[in-house]
Design a protein that fits this description.
Blueprint lengths: L4 H4 L12 H4 L4 H8 L5 E4 L6 H10 L4 E6 L5 H8 L11 E6 L6 H11 L4 E7 L3 H4 L2 H5 L2 E4 L5 H19 L2 E4 L3 H8 L4 H14 L2 E2 L2 E4 L1 H7 L12 H15 L3 H13 L3 H16 L6 H15 L5 H13 L5 H14 L59 H15 L1
Parallel strand pairs: 1-4, 1-5, 2-3, 3-4, 6-8
Antiparallel strand pairs: 7-8
């Protein structure tokens, strides 16, 4: 079976790599390291299909060391030891360049074993990961490596690779190729910044297009049908998941309904209804809160409807709620107040509950003043009377500060008037 198109046309020079100009332009740190030929241990971090393996292969070609490849999902400690055993033999006279894909799947012990062999310089490690290396890679390996972040490729940069892929397939099969307007752009857009997926779509479109008189004409309709639905990068346990839900809530908090709807759409496109609902309710309470407290049951009702009807109809009540939260007045006074109170409790900054607030029970002989002396607020004018509620050690503490919105300022004015008598 032929290798996939993405492997057959993999670039062999840095200039031919699609995207990653922030790393691979002359003068950039990674470019200079590769050009020098003195390669340190490297970690490539970024989404799949953006050139990490390609750049590693180019580095391997630029060094005299023997290239060995392992994948963290399948490799074992013994595989590492087998590679190390080659050092100093005729198969690896100048040492080994080890390319370890998906290093995040190596457990701590496996990474410690690897560390032992990269410390003496006989193995140069190039590891790739789709996850944040600072969370998943053993700190000792990180401290001995240089991390470079690869980014999703812009769709405009993918178009030439898509065209080249079609041309190569046409040449290999001895046919002429033509396209309906927009085909190349649609395939590039639909790849979600993943060049490999774009080239897989190229193969699908090429072989699904009938040949007539030695010619193939790829239509927009066929391309739309066969292009992989990958415009949303998403892994519920990965960085992209947390980036999207973070942007979703921050957009609502920042009162930008358009951005909030965009990130809602990305969550729903990925089928992540639970995250869309949970962050929406959190934002209603945390970021709108007391500025418009009625929003909380409204948002909860929209979430209940969304969960009852499911996707795709769930998008409608959620969109209503997202727009409402994004355009509502904002106050985080409630969230700030409980955070300060919890910080005090966590730090042990509290004391015995005042006697007048305790549940009624017997005063022991040690009590100097017997009796509870609780003042029932409803027995007083405006249903309030001065009384100590906080423990003695923090009796003058203030956690809640009225927000500057109309709602909370009205409450403030009311209580100032009542408490002044």
């Amino acid at each position: 079976m032929n290798k996939p198109l993405a492997d057959r046309i993999r670039p062999t020079t840095l200039e031919d790599v699609v995207g990653q100009r922030h790393l691979l332009e002359p003068g950039k740190a990674l470019y200079n390291l590769i050009e020098s030929g003195d390669i340190p241990n490297l970690i490539f971090y970024g989404p799949s299909g953006v050139g990490k393996t390609t750049v590693a292969a180019i580095i391997a070609n630029a060094t005299n060391r023997t290239l060995r490849k392992l994948n963290g999902t399948t490799a074992s400690t013994q595989d590492i030891k087998d590679i190390v055993a080659e050092i100093g033999t005729f198969t690896a006279p100048n040492g080994i360049l080890l390319y370890l894909d998906e290093i995040q799947y190596f457990n701590k012990r496996q990474q410690q074993t690897l560390l032992e062999f990269i410390e003496n310089g006989k193995i140069t490690l190039i590891a790739s990961t789709t996850e944040n290396p600072y969370f998943y890679i053993y700190p000792a390996i990180l401290s001995r490596s240089t991390v470079f972040e690869f980014k999703s490729v812009k769709w405009e940069e993918i178009v030439p690779a898509v065209k080249r892929g079609f041309d190569i397939l046409a040449g290999e099969n001895g046919v002429e190729i033509s396209f309906e307007d927009g085909v190349l752009e649609n395939i590039s857009r639909g790849s979600g910044g993943d060049v490999r997926k774009a080239l897989n779509s190229v193969e699908n479109c090429f072989y699904a297009t009938p040949t007539k008189d030695g010619k193939k004409h790829v239509t927009k309709e066929l391309a739309a049908e066969l292009t992989q639905k990958s415009s949303v990068r998403y892994d519920r346990d990965g960085d992209e998941h947390y980036d999207i839900i973070s942007a979703y809530q921050k957009s609502m908090r920042g009162s930008d309904p358009d951005a909030a709807l965009h990130y809602l759409a990305r969550l729903l496109e990925a089928g992540d209804l639970p995250s869309a609902c949970r962050r929406l309710m959190v934002c209603a309470c945390e970021d709108v809160g007391l500025a418009y407290p009625q929003i909380i049951p409204i948002v909860k009702s929209c979430v209940d409807i969304a969960q009852a009807v499911g996707l795709p109809e769930a998008r409608i009540p959620l969109a209503d709620a997202v727009i409402l939260v994004a355009t509502a007045p904002k106050s985080n006074s409630g969230a700030g107040a409980i955070d300060e109170a919890m910080a005090d409790v966590s730090a042990g900054n509290y004391g015995p509950i005042p006697r007048q607030l305790q549940n009624k029970h017997y005063d022991g002989d040690e009590a100097e003043v017997k009796g509870q002396f609780y003042l029932y607020p409803h027995n007083f004018k405006n249903h309030w009377t001065a009384q100590q509620y906080l423990p003695d050690v923090i009796k003058d503490k203030h956690y809640y500060v009225y927000g500057d919105n109309k709602n909370e300022q009205a409450f403030k004015t009311y209580w100032e008037k009542v408490k002044k008598g």
